[in-house]
Specification:
Strand content: 15-25%
Oligomer: single chain
Order of helices and strands: HEEEHHH
Radius of gyration: 27 Å
CATH architecture of one domain: Alpha-Beta Complex
Number of strands: 3
Strand order of the largest sheet: 1-2-3
Structural class: alpha+beta
Largest sheet: 3 strands, antiparallel
CATH class of one domain: Alpha Beta
Number of helices: 4
Length: 144
Amino acid sequence: MSSKTKIVVLHMKEIIYTAIFAVLAIVLILLLIFMFLPKNESVKDSGNTYTPGVYTSTVTLNNTALEVEVTVDESHINSIRFSNLDETVATMFPLIQPTIEDIAEQVYASQSLENIQYSEENPYTSQVILGAIDDALKKAVTTE
């Protein structure tokens, strides 16, 4: 009767460390998956259908409210402009009118807010204007 019994000794500390590292690895993998999944872009698809009309969104600069006015028909963005830009605001923010004109040209060409190139002189202003345009277009999107 010869049995070859093997005794394996595991330290509880090693088991706990292994379990903790396994859980951290799973959390890291899930985090990476959620970070790099494509997000739903409601307005930024070029295949949107709009309710024709004029839609506005407000941008506030130094306690002055500017309205970004976006005009759309059923499938195109036709016009983007400031509806109440007066001389004092234009004087205080001289880059705001050229910025909206540059963004509007890019949007007219692509009919989308994706891949808009910001000017190097005023990226923050461009982002604020794009956010206002996006808000106005969300109001115009037809939900089916």
